[in-house]
Amino acid sequence: MEYRQNKKGEPISILGYGCMRFTSGPGGIDIAKAEKEIITAYNAGVNYYDTAYIYPGSEAALGEILERNHIRENVNIATKLPQYLVGSRNAIDKYFNEELKRLRTDYIDYYLMHHMTASNQWDKLVGLGIKEWIEEKKSSGQIRNIGFSYHGNTEDFIEILDAYDWDFCQIQYNYMDEHSQAGLKGLKHAAEKNIPVVIMEPLRGGKLVNLLPPKAKVLIASSPRGYTPAEYGLRWLWNQPEVTCVLSGMNSIQMVQENCRIASDAKAGSFSKDDFEIIEKVKAIISESELVGCTGCRYCMPCPKGVDIPALFRVYNMTALESKSAARFEYAQTVGLKKEPAFATQCIGCGKCEQHCPQSIPIREKIKEADKVLRPLPYKVGINIARAFMLRK
């Protein structure tokens, strides 16, 4: 197992265990199965285990497994405060203490503010005294590293990152999301501040394996490297020294063994020119099914009315590449939950975006088309309710 370091110089395995997707049985999580998988990963050197308050049964299962096998002190537990449910200082303590009980521990190695999407969410927590609370918990040893997980645009990510002395952060990042959400720019900014970055959705929930077009699978299979689609996706991430740890929601012994094998020799800077060319060709094949030829260059931005044009087109393309439901959920969390509204309906038709688009996309026409698909009436209502709840002051 390869390791990289946190801000204190302590080792973190480059492969982390994402505990959100434990297999469920008739009575909930299949503990026996999860235990075999976790212990297999542990024996291979994985020392970072990621869970959250809202993952059903996950914290309790992880706590039980670690305690029964007497390995709590040898691993790092990462879990998360459901900041979107917090309305008072007392609530922060309530959730944290419940998590300690579930995890059968008296300290958390890596504690995150969960699912941040806009900078005013951090402002709200600051108003509730979160900075003082963090200092108390770190002084007492109950929290050893503090961070946040993020789903939003690059600008808000950087604003949150700069707003506090974070020990680490967690972002969605993979070769198809290189310039969306926090993106490469956010990853580089974190590295400049010496903030370790944990990666979630490295294979977009398996879609960069299971839903790859046949042409892309044939291309990867033809490589003399002998890498699988999953291996290319993971090695692309680990090739970047700014990436500290990559989470994988492993739910079979075979998957654990395969990912640990890859993580045993994946080093930064090991990608060859041919490897990069294959990734670019795979991206091009995937993009053949896109509805809008947007490259995410952001030359169209900023929109004078705040429409997030690249994000809108990226998610619109997901409806053809993955599914409408997945795209609508992605749109709801990355665009719908921005601090300031960024919907296509705010467009006034000024055309400034089209003047700067290198692809000559008829942006004004296409954003209206995309909005109709991504925000049918039930989703408009749902997004409005979610905005009122998660972005409340």
TrEMBL record:
Q: Which CDD domains does the record associate with it?
A: AKR_Fe-S_oxidoreductase
Q: Which PROSITE patterns match?
A: 4FE4S_FER_1, 4FE4S_FER_2
Q: Which GO terms describe its molecular function?
A: iron-sulfur cluster binding; metal ion binding; oxidoreductase activity
Q: Where are the transmembrane segments?
A: none
What keywords were assigned to this record?
Iron, Iron-sulfur, Metal-binding
Sequence ranges assigned to domain 4Fe-4S ferredoxin-type in this UniProt record: 338-366
Alphabetical list of Pfam families matching this protein: Aldo_ket_red, Fer4_9
Q: Under what name is this protein listed? A: 4Fe-4S ferredoxin-type domain-containing protein
In its UniProt entry, the species of origin is given as Butyrivibrio proteoclasticus
